[in-house]
Design a protein that fits this description.
Elements (H helix, E strand, L loop, with lengths): L1 E5 L6 E5 L7 H4 L7 E7 H12 L4 E7 L8 H13 L7 E6 L1 H13 L5 E6 L2 H7 L4 E6 L2 E8 L4 E4 L9 H18 L1 H16 L2 H21 L15 H10 L8 H18 L5 H13 L11 H8 L12 E4 L5 E4 L4 H11 L12
Parallel strand pairs: 2-9, 3-4, 3-5, 5-6
Antiparallel strand pairs: 1-2, 7-8, 10-11
Bound molecules: glycine (GLY).
Length: 368
């Protein structure tokens, strides 16, 4: 068992990482009132892993949410809040979010507005959620104008990670989540990036020690960053968006479809961020090549295949992190040396992308 603390005064909480956690009734008893525990679960995850939690013998009031990013919508949020109210959820209750990033974001946002704010705990079951989205209190839904544009900062009261849930995660989703693991090395920990190069194959194959080591390293870094800069107001939290400005634009061009998973978009986005940094004379090209080689070895895409330069840059003008009409980019001086650059012109990004996307795919807008 490994515990990591997120230090946020009265909003502090523990992230627990333990193989088999899901099978231990005592881990979940604190979240049950009068023996009843309210669980909001991704329906696919519940089918694969729910029996383990149900075997605790706790009385579970279950709300199943359809799997997929489409559930992060106004309609599903209203539906979920109504279901929670029908169940008589009180402010003193803790709702459990059981699944990946979608269910964590949706449930966390519902919890932030229900009864003017009630508690929730995250039980992340995907690698992406275990190393990133379940920690730090960002909650959101997607709207017509873009991804995660409506939401709240609402910290969970606990994060309970059982890495054995990854045993039933589809391989493609596991690899996509692995992109967020690599992100931590690229941001600020070159030794961890080297560890990733040496251990990714074992991690992806399901090696328990490699899995636990990676999850703990990532959540330790994330907990430290969130503890310093909870609301992304000028501190290091923005660095966690490495690859995400390019990535979100690619996801938008892919129509948030199964064509491109979030982690895959982040993998391409991180390579673009490094290559753009090289083009600006900030980063040795050998580092960008090493990033691309590692992500390729991990079975991730590294080159953009969705959208034209103009269309991609168009999405960046809607980025929620824009300030004074400028989009902040996370660039790098090398592996483990990411920084925020607020001086990038979108025309420079468009010119850079024109060199990254083959000319035959630049004829007109949209996915080609
Ligand atoms: N996923 C980025 C953050 O939590 O800040």
């Amino acid at each position: 068992m490994r515990d990591v603390e997120v230090g946020l005064d009265e909003r502090s909480y523990t992230i627990r990482i333990e193989d088999g956690l899901l099978d231990r009734r005592e881990a979940f008893e604190p979240f049950a009132r009068g023996g009843r525990m309210v669980v909001v679960a991704d329906d696919s995850v519940w089918a694969a892993q729910g029996a383990r939690l149900a075997a605790s013998g706790l009385d579970i009031a279950l709300i199943e949410v359809p799997s997929g990013e489409a559930s992060k919508s106004w309609d599903r949020l209203i539906w979920l809040v109504d279901r929670l109210l029908e169940l008589g959820v009180e402010r003193s209750d803790t709702i459990l979010a059981f699944g990946g990033g979608m269910v964590g974001d949706l449930t966390g946002f519902a919890a932030s507005i229900l009864n003017r704010g009630c508690a929730y705990a995250q039980v992340p079951t995907t690698l992406l959620a275990q190393v990133d989205s379940s920690v730090g209190g960002k909650t959101a839904i997607n709207v017509a104008a873009g991804k995660n544009l409506v939401g709240a900062f609402h910290q969970p009261s606990a994060v309970l990670i059982d890495p054995t849930t990854l045993d039933t995660l589809p391989d493609r989703e596991l690899r996509a989540g692995y992109a967020e693991v690599v992100k931590y090395g690229l941001i600020a920990d070159p030794a961890f990036f080297a560890w990733c190069e040496a251990n990714s194959a074992a991690l992806i194959a399901g090696d328990a020690a490699a899995r636990a080591e990676a999850i703990e390293t990532c959540v330790r870094m994330k907990a430290a960053i969130v503890g310093e800069d909870e609301r992304e107001t000028g501190g290091r939290r923005a660095l966690l968006n490495l690859g995400h400005t390019f990535g979100h634009a690619l996801e938008a061009e892919a129509g948030y479809s199964g064509d491109l998973l979030h982690g895959e978009a982040v993998a391409i986005g991180m390579v673009l961020a490094f290559r753009f940094s090289v083009e600006r004379g900030l980063c040795p090209s050998a580092d960008a090549d090493r990033v691309e080689a590692h992500l390729t070895a991990a079975g991730l895409p590294t080159r953009p295949v969705h959208g034209t330069p103009a269309a991609l840059v168009g999405h960046m003008t809607k980025d929620k992190k824009r300030e004074g009409g400028r989009t902040a980019f996370i660039l790098a001086r090398g592996i483990g040396q990411a920084f925020v650059d607020k001086g990038v012109e979108l025309s420079e990004v468009e010119a850079f992308l024109a060199g990254e996307i083959p000319p035959h795919r630049q004829m007109g807008r949209g996915t080609t």
